[in-house]
Automatic annotation (TrEMBL), chain A:
It is found in: Cell membrane; Membrane. This is Binding-protein-dependent transport systems inner membrane component. It is a multi-pass membrane protein. Residues 25-205 form the ABC transmembrane type-1 domain. The chain crosses the membrane at residues 29-51, 63-84, 90-110, 131-148, 154-174, 186-205. It comes from Limosilactobacillus secaliphilus. The keyword Endoplasmic reticulum does not apply. Keywords: Membrane, Transmembrane, Transmembrane helix, Transport. Belongs to the binding-protein-dependent transport system permease family.
Automatic annotation (TrEMBL), chain B:
Pfam families: ABC_tran, CBS. Residues 261-317, 321-382 form the CBS domain. It comes from the Bacteria. It catalyses: a quaternary ammonium(out) + ATP + H2O = a quaternary ammonium(in) + ADP + phosphate + H(+). This is Quaternary amine transport ATP-binding protein. One of its GO terms (cellular component) is plasma membrane.
């Protein structure tokens, strides 16, 4: 092993532990996406709520901002005290981190709906819900998706650190590499797929964002 | 026949905002079916406030607004709005919906079946002379004028009888605006829609409205037909709003016979002789006489040519005059008189009141004077004085 260069070691590791890495990759991805989806489920309604009751918007966004300022390792440790080791703690952390971009983008998107369009929709007899579903959400879906994209990229990074509290994922491989003597190749075997995952999911979500944004909106 | 009921009625309506600002004060108005009412006035004068109360986009703080005899305060605002067309200045087409979906928005909210909606969309797009394949386009793919045309037909897609328009054509270029004005005129005049339009464009109001309501500072300054407003502006504010050019133009358009006629024309009774009539003509340097009865009613006219033809100056005027001559009433519009005078080469036209008593005459030169005044302004009396020296 010692005679091999770093990249050769890297490929060697990959060849011999491919399925293991793939398993960690899947686990990593699922943890990240689970946290983000939970945050979307909670964050989008909150965003919609504060867009309509604007007085709530400041305290809510401030709070989400506050959560964001806590370093991820600190957050993981604090939550670990309550939730114990394992992936549920990481998912909760991701959930909390993802709230800000999702709430804020939902809020911004909905607030930016053209007042003329809203006035016309109301004046034609749409209920508040119809305005939300038929007009505001479709018009702001791409901004909301941008928030989710943002959240997912951050989440993939947080999950990597989550390995410290036993959540699994590619972070496991990275930690193993840091513990081994000359473990550079192993670190890479964990780190490169993590980076790849972040880049690819960003690209994929960009595609999804284009797909779900309604056709009539001009490209701008 | 029963008197038609107003479709929209304001009954002592007021709106005071919590900060104490009075947006509307004791507003009363009855809008009859088929009316075209224009609200005009300064911004912040209350016109938009008043209009938005009809479909309950705003609620009054005092008084009642009625729609079709029912108090709107008792109606479900959502349901009410679906039965009143709504057109706004910024058009407000929904950008991610095709023109068809935009047009059929209210029918869809009212749960019309799909086939009926599609048929309606095709019918309406034909009305505004746009090709049917535009229905699948999106709002940003068509011009501003076309967008507002869609905005207008969207407001009548569910066959709403009343349409509210808030400065609908303010942002359009003059040519497009004119076309759209033709469209809404057609909707009101030919399809019998009732239209209530907020505008700041007096030309638009004068052109389209059957009634103009002028607002200032939350109060009605004047509410009358366009002709009435031009003829009798309630105060300086209204005059200013109309503008000097239009006032001047209106003076000509709406001038009546009495405004330019010469008073006390030379007349005679029928019982005098031709000779006496001739003397009278000579004294006044005129070549014709108006013949009246004892109560000064017009019975004929006598031309110098007729006198000369008979030579026998002892004959009575009443036997040789031209009986029952052409005449006009003092309140006839000049615009309806002048053609007769010019086409028939009449030298003058007697003006009578409604009891047929002669009150004056219009000569060709009085028409010419009016025309000159309109084109070059009133003659300055000082100029005349100079000429006299």
């Amino acid at each position: 092993m010692k005679d091999l260069g770093l990249w050769q070691q890297f490929f060697y590791y990959f060849q011999h532990n491919g399925m293991y890495i793939l398993g960690k990759f899947n686990q990593h991805f699922l943890i990240s996406i689970e946290g983000v989806l939970l945050a979307a489920l909670v964050g989008i309604p909150i965003g919609a709520l504060i867009a309509h009751y604007r007085r709530l918007s400041n305290p809510v966004i401030q709070l989400a901002n506050l959560i964001q300022t806590i370093p991820s390792l600190a957050m993981l440790s604090i939550l670990m005290l309550g939730l114990g080791l394992g992936d549920q703690t990481v998912i909760t952390t991701i959930f909390l981190y993802s709230l800000l971009p999702i709430i804020q983008n939902t809020y911004t998107g909905l607030r930016n709906t053209s007042p003329a369009v809203l006035d016309a929709s109301k004046g034609m007899g749409m209920t508040k819900w119809q305005q939300l579903w038929m007009v505001e959400i479709p018009l702001s879906v791409s901004v909301i998706m941008a928030g989710i994209r943002n959240a997912l990229v951050v989440a993939i990074g947080v999950t990597a650190i989550g390995a410290f509290i036993g959540a699994g994922g590619l972070g496991d491989i990275i930690i193993r590499g840091t513990n081994a003597t000359n473990g550079g190749a192993i670190i890479l075997a964990g780190a490169l797929p993590t980076a790849l995952m972040a880049i690819v999911s960003d690209l994929v979500l960009e595609g999804v964002q284009k797909l779900v944004s309604p056709k009539g909106l001009s490209e701008s | 026949m029963a008197q038609a009921k107003p479709i929209v009625e304001f009954d002592h309506v007021g709106k005071t905002y919590p900060n104490g600002k009075q947006a509307l004060v004791d507003f009363n108005l009855k809008v009859m079916p088929g009316d075209f009412v224009c609200f005009i006035g300064t911004s912040g004068g209350g016109k938009t406030t008043a209009m938005r109360m009809i479909n309950r986009m705003l609620d009054p703080t005092s008084g009642e607004v009625k729609f079709d005899g029912k108090k709107v305060a008792d109606l479900d605002p959502i349901e009410l709005r679906r039965h009143i067309g709504y057109v706004i200045q910024n058009i407000g087409l929904i950008p991610h919906m095709t023109l068809e979906d935009n047009i059929c928005l209210v029918p869809k909210l009212l749960k019309w079946p799909k086939e009926k909606r599609e048929a309606r969309a095709r019918e309406l797009i034909k009305l505004v002379e746009m090709p049917e394949d535009f229905l699948s386009r999106y709002p940003h793919e068509i011009s501003g004028g076309q967008q507002q045309r869609i905005g207008v037909i969207r407001a009548l897609a569910a066959d709403q009888k009343v349409m509210l328009m808030d400065e609908p054509f303010g942002a359009l270029d003059p040519l497009t605006r004119e076309k759209l004005q033709d469209l809404v005129h057609y909707l009101q005049h030919d399809l019998g829609k009732t239209i209530i339009m907020v505008t700041h464009d007096m030309d638009e109001a004068l052109r389209l409205a059957t009634r103009i309501v002028i607002f200032d500072d939350g109060r009605i300054i004047q509410s009358a037909s366009p002709a009435e407003i031009l003829k009798h502006p309630a105060n300086d504010f209204v005059e200013e709003l109309i503008g000097p050019d239009r006032m001047n133009e209106a003076k000509v358009m709406l001038a009546t016979a009495s405004s330019i006629m010469l008073n006390n024309p030379v007349s005679t009774t029928g019982d005098v002789t031709l000779g006496e009539a001739l003397v009278k003509m000579n004294n006044h340097h005129i070549d014709s006489l108006i013949v009246v009865d004892d109560e000064h009613r017009l019975i004929g006219e006598l031309d110098i040519g007729q006198v000369m033809a008979h030579r026998n100056l002892k004959l009575k005027v009443k036997n040789y005059m031209l009986a029952s001559p052409r005449s006009v009433f003092e309140d006839d519009l000049l615009s309806s008189i002048y053609q007769t005078i010019i086409n028939r080469h009449l030298k003058y036209m007697p003006v009578v009141d409604h009891d047929h008593r002669v009150v004056g005459i219009i000569t060709r030169s009085s028409l010419a004077t009016l025309l000159c005044e309109h084109v070059w302004g009133k003659a300055d009396p000082e100029d005349n004085a100079d000429e006299g020296k």
